[in-house]
Structure formats: C-alpha cells, structure tokens
Amino acid sequence: MGHSQDLLRNYSVLSVLGVGFSLANAWFGISTGLITGINSGGPILIVYGLVLIALISLCVGISLSELVSAYPNAGGQYFWANELASRRYANFASYLTGWFAWAGSIFTSASIAIAVGSGGVGCWQLAHPDFVVRPWHVFLGYQTVNIFAFFFNCYGRILPTMGQLTFWTSLLSFIIILVTVPSKAPTHQDAKFVFATFVNNTGWKNNGIAFIVGLINPNWAFAGLDCATHLAEEIHHPEKMIPIAILGTVAISFVTSWTYAIALFFSMKDVDSLVDTATGVPILVLFYQIMRNKAGAIALEALIMATGVGCQIACHTWQSRLCWSFARDGGIPCSSYFCKVDRRLNVPLRAHFMSCILVAIVGCLYLGSYTAFNSMITAGIVCLYISYSIPVICLLLRGRDNIPHGPFWMGPIGLLSNIVLLLWTCFTFIMYSFPPVRPVHASNMNYVSAVYAILVLIIVIDWFARGRREYRAQDERHDEAAAPLLRGSVTEDGDDRQRVDESTTAGMN
Q1: DSSP state, 11?
Q2: What residues are paired with 235 via a beta bridge?
Q3: CA–CA dist 297, 289 (Å, integer)
Q4: Helix, strand or coil for residue 476?
Q5: Do the Cβ atoms of 216 and 36 come closer than 8 Å?
Q6: φ, ψ for residue 40 (rounded to 5)?
Q7: Which of 36-45, 172-181, 445-454 has the lowest mean pLDDT?
Q8: Which of 163, 311, 397, 475 is buried most deeply by CB count within 10 Å?
Q9: Please, which residues have CB within 8 angstroms of residue 416's CB and are 6 or more apart in sequence?
C-alpha cells in the first residue's frame, strides 16, 4: 500500500480485541457518565439507550469491518478515503478525515483521563468527608493518568500482552461488581422503576429532547470502534482478524453494559441522592449506599479505575498509531519528524509523545471551564463519526461493487449499515449541539459548535499553509507501492536476457 513494514506483527486477534474492548468498554462508560443519564432520562435512557446505541454501533462496526477487510492499513479511515475518493478530491477528503479522526482520539483520551482522575479524587473525598474537591485536584489526577499511560505505551513489545491483561481485568471487574451490587443491596427496586421510569432534570419541557441530549452518555461508552483498524500493520491476516475484533467489541460491550446497568438500577435506593454529591462521582455514592461502608465502596470504585487505566492505555495506543500513520503521509506539521518508529521500543515514540502532550494541554481547559471541557468530549464523539462517514460516502459514490472486496463483505446488510451510519452522523452533529440543560447560561452552554469551528479553522489554515503541497497524493503512494514490483520485473527480464545471451554465445562457440 505504499508503506514499509515498520512495526512488528506481534498482536494476536485476542490482543487486538483486548485493546479494542478496553477502549470501547461500554460498562466502564456507563459507570463514569452515570450522572448524564440520570438527569436526562433516568433508567429508561440507559436501559433502552444502550440497545439503540448498540444497534447503531453494530452498523458502524460492519461499515468499518468491510473497509478494513478490503484495505487493511494503519491509517484506517483516512487511508480508505484516499483510496476511494475520486482523484480530484482524494487528497483533501483523506486529509480532512485524518484530522477529524486524530482530534476525536485526543478528545476521547482526555475524557477517559478525567473520568479516572475524578474517580480517584472522589474516593479520597469519601474517605475524608471534610475534604472539598477543587478542579485542580481532578486536574492533577487527570495528568497523573495521562503520564502513566504514556510511559506504559513506550514499550511496544508488552502492549499485546497488556491488551489481553486489560481485557480480562475488565471482565473480572465487571463480574465482581455485577455479583456484589445486587447481593449486598439492602433493598431492590421493582421492574417498573428499571424499565419504565423516566427522569427529566434537564429543564427541557419536551422529554424527547431530554432523552436525545442524554444519549451522549451511552454513545460515549461505545466510542472509538476504529481503534482496532489502526493495528492492521501489527497483526497477521488483518483482513480477517480486525473485523472479528471490531464486531466482538460491539457484542461484548453491549452484553456487559446492559446487564451492568440493569443490576445497578435494581439495586439503586433512589435517583435524587446521586445527583448532588460531594465526591463528584455518582457511581461511588451508589456503591456506598449499597455496601454501607466506605472501604467496600472504594474497593468497587478501584475496580472501575483499574478498568479505566486499561482503557487509557488502549486509547494512547490508538492515538499514537493514528498520529504516526497520518504523519507518514504528511498529514500533520513536521511530519518527517513524527513519522519515525523507535526500533528498540517498537513504538512510534515521537507521535506518541506528541499526542500525549496534546491530551495534557486539553486537560488545562478543565481548570478554566468544566462546561467547555465537556463540549470537547461531545465533539470527540461526533468527530469520530464524521471520520467514519467520509470514506463511506466515497465508497457509495464509487459503488460498493466497484472495489475489491475483502473476506468480510456483507452485501445488502453492509449497504444498510452504511446508510445508518451516515444518518446517525447527521443526527448527532445537530442534536448533540443542543444545550444539555435549560435555561441556558454561559456556565451550562454547549460549546461544541465552537469546538467544531476551531478545529475546522486549524484544518483549513494547515491545508493552505502546507498540507496541499506536502500531503502524499494517491498516485504517489500507488507509484511507490508498484516500484518494488517493477524493479523485480526488470531484474527478471534482465536475468532472462542474460541467459539468452549466454545460450547464444555457447551455440556460436
């Protein structure tokens, strides 16, 4: 595909599944974003919202799996856009896709770091009731998690094993909480509360709008399904293995998150007590109500944090591969510097460091405005959907039957999945821009539109300043891919001519 093999193929399908599931770990996402769901629909939002998002994620997974099966490359969606778009628009479509994908990975990484950091500070507050949580406390927790995950990702040879370890850690933590919470709960809610109770604390008079803005919580829980595609150059037979990892991630995430949510709501004492808590972590308060002792609650929260750390490590693996592969094609400034792979560590260290620095910078926004920081989390979800949609649009314009199909190809089901993905992207781009609560003030406004505007401004400036000249064109990459074949053909022709000449000379003698 016009790229040299720079990384070892040391991932197994279980390792890739582990990384993918660690990132798109829906039961962890439900735990950390519980407050959004409680205020914007309550049990109904989480229970039925997870079903809706799982179906949509299945369509996303099928769309991604078809493309990675046909075009396995660490660039993922930006590479597909370059291959599928017409020659005239291929470069800009690919460039745009790469930036939205990379931005989405940075914002997602920031959201996971803040979730784990908040959990740690919340545990300290629960153990020390006089302690008052300040934004800078959470910020320190955020940066600690980011730095820890950075160093863990500096050793590429351990990452496949780490992927499997975090996978089993997540499942074990899930099972422990799933068994402990219902069995220790002093009382249990009835089925009506779990399956038919709608809570609207958003200020929106229309419950439908409240439900839609609350979907950000289960939607975030399934974010990052493209993670496995960026490991395509680190696993054997990626055209077969990556689709297994993607669809396996969707299936496991739905089963674990849905059963987990139902167990939580059956064991919940009441909703109101979770909304305003000094810990800032509603799930921790729920555990305390159920366990009736602080040590037990902190122990359960520690399992969620351990899962979150694994999620952050997977996220750094994802964003570093995205940055590195994009830099190979000149997608970011100073690409020639960031496209290098450290051979000793077997990791794109410079791209990894750059991505982690950006995550650290994004975290600074939390000190200034919690609302603006949350807007970036929302932007991360939509940016990823946009990055999936661009190559899908290119695929449909080119014709699904006009490309070489990989081993994974779903035919009409794939077409339906493509359409669902595009419709959902348009829906989220509009509806996730609505304010989460009313009345709207500067402190609770949804600034996601401003995030989009800033991101597009950066993309446009970089494109005209450098990208349109430096970004590697489709034809250039194809020529580089064909060069070794042509050299081999020339060598074989030369050998044939030499043998003919020798034979002729021998005959003359």
Answers
A1: B
A2: 11
A3: 8
A4: helix
A5: yes
A6: -110, 40
A7: 36-45
A8: 311
A9: 59
State the number of CA atoms in the 13 A half-sphere of 214 facing the CB.
Answer: 32
Average pLDDT over residues 387-403: 96
DSSP-derived pairing of the beta strands 40-41 and 199-200: antiparallel
- Contact between 286 and 260 (Cβ < 8 Å): no
Choose among 282, 299, 222: nearest CA to 255. Answer: 222
Determine the Cα–Cα distance for residues 316 and 104; give it in Å rounded to an integer. Answer: 12
Which of 256-265, 386-395, 435-444, 449-458 bottoms out in mean pLDDT, i.e. has the lowest?
435-444
Structure token digits, residue 99: 């930036």
pLDDT confidence tier of residue 344, bands split at 50, 70 and 90 = confident
Spatial neighbors of 140 by CB under 8 A, at least 6 apart, are 117
- Written as six digits, the tokens of 304 are 């969620």
Q: Which among 118, 109, 153 has a CA at the least distance from the CA of 352?
A: 153
Query: Is the pLDDT assigned to residue 317 strictly greater than 50?
Result: yes
Q: Are 395 and 77 in contact (CB under 8 A)?
A: no
Query: Which are the contacts of 181, defined by CB distance < 8 A and separation ≥ 6?
Result: 263, 264, 267, 287, 290, 300
Residue 252: how many other CB atoms lie within 10 Å: 21
Cα angle value 4/323/382 (rounded, 5°): 130
Question: What is the pLDDT, as a whole number, of residue 294?
Answer: 94
